[in-house]
Amino acid sequence: MDYRVDNPMVKLGSPKYPDRVPRPVPDDGLARLLCSRMHHRTRVMILLASLGGLRVHEIAKFRGEDIDLARRVFYVHGKGGSRNMLPLHPLLAEAALTMPQRGWWFPSNTKRPGQHVHAKGVSDIIGQAMRRAGTPGTPHSLRHWFGTTLLDDGEDVRVVQTLLRHKSLATTAIYTKVPDARRHSAVDRLDPFRASRPRLVPVDGVAGLTG
Q1: What is the fold of 27-178?
Q2: Residue 39 annotated among the catalytic residues of the structure
Q3: Is 23 a catalytic residue?
Q4: What CA–CA distances, in Å, run from 75 to 47, 51, 52, 59, 156?
Q5: Which of 128, 130, 150, 169 would be 155's cystine partner, CB 3.0–4.6 Å?
Q6: 144 a catalytic residue
Q7: Full-model pTM
Q8: Is 55 a catalytic residue?
Q9: Which residues belong to any copy of the Tyr recombinase domain (predicted)?
Q10: What's the pLDDT tens digit per position in 78-134?
């Protein structure tokens, strides 16, 4: 049997993967979730995800020492010992008054004394509450809601990047969804005959019409 000396696979390009699409919870779904009956600890988890933009593993490791009510900020611990300071939403500040000032906010059960709950435990708890409330999505959809709502309200994407703690602006673009209404409005404003339209030009310091 003869074998080729060259490798034909090197001529193949890298596979193309579709862009990830953010799936934030709908506004009415979040409102319905927060208005539903649930354990207080579950509600605080949901607030950390939707109003703090935290991931489930960050929620699991949250401590009372991570809150500074006087400065209205909280801290999120990242890789390599990094610590990010973020603004504290009023509803989170209110919730903090009901939580331990020191130690884990979400301690594990008696089988793991002194430890925090697992990230999967947080995901399961929030997910169950969402299903009971009829709120579509996953626990991470609450973080998506945080990012998309900030952008939809007119916040600068670079500000949203810092709040989501993304190193790359391209990553933030995945978490922020341009509303369909804004996309339609952008296309509707296109004018193929704008070259023949009157336009404003300065005349002795005063804008005037031309064309």
Answers
A1: hpI Integrase; Chain A (1.10.443)
A2: no
A3: no
A4: 15, 14, 10, 11, 22
A5: 150
A6: no
A7: 0.76
A8: yes
A9: 20-188
A10: 766 778 999 999 999 999 999 999 999 999 876 767 789 999 999 999 999 999 999
